[in-house]
Amino acid sequence: MDIVEMDIATLTGFLREAEERHGAYDATAPKHHWSDWYAGYIVARERGREPEDAVKDAGQHMTRVLERAPK
């Protein structure tokens, strides 16, 4: 597991971006916890992905999370 060291201003920015972009996903997604999507988005941004690509990465992360969820 990689240890991510991020300053507060950067994390705050990523959280705000995630908040702005999560709505589109949330409107059509199955029931989920917002923190899973935010985590996927923030990790992607920390790794240098552009916001549009981070949205895709967060969606792919959610697909994996929801596949593992108890039915």
Radius of gyration: 12 Å
Q: How many independent structural domains?
A: 1
Spans of 5+ residues with little confidence (pLDDT < 50)? Answer: none
Number of extended strands:
0
How much of the polypeptide forms β-strand, as a percent range?
under 5%
Question: Which shape, going by the Cα principal axes?
Answer: globular
* Order of helix and strand elements from N to C terminus: HHH
Main attributes of the structure:
mainly alpha; 0% strand; 73% helix
General description of the model:
Helix 1 crosses helix 2 (34-46) and helix 2 (34-46) crosses helix 3 (51-68). The model has no long low-confidence stretch (mean pLDDT 91). The protein is globular. The protein starts with 7 loop residues before the first helix and ends with a helix. It has helices at residues 8-28, 34-46, 51-68. It has one domain. By secondary structure, it is mostly helical.
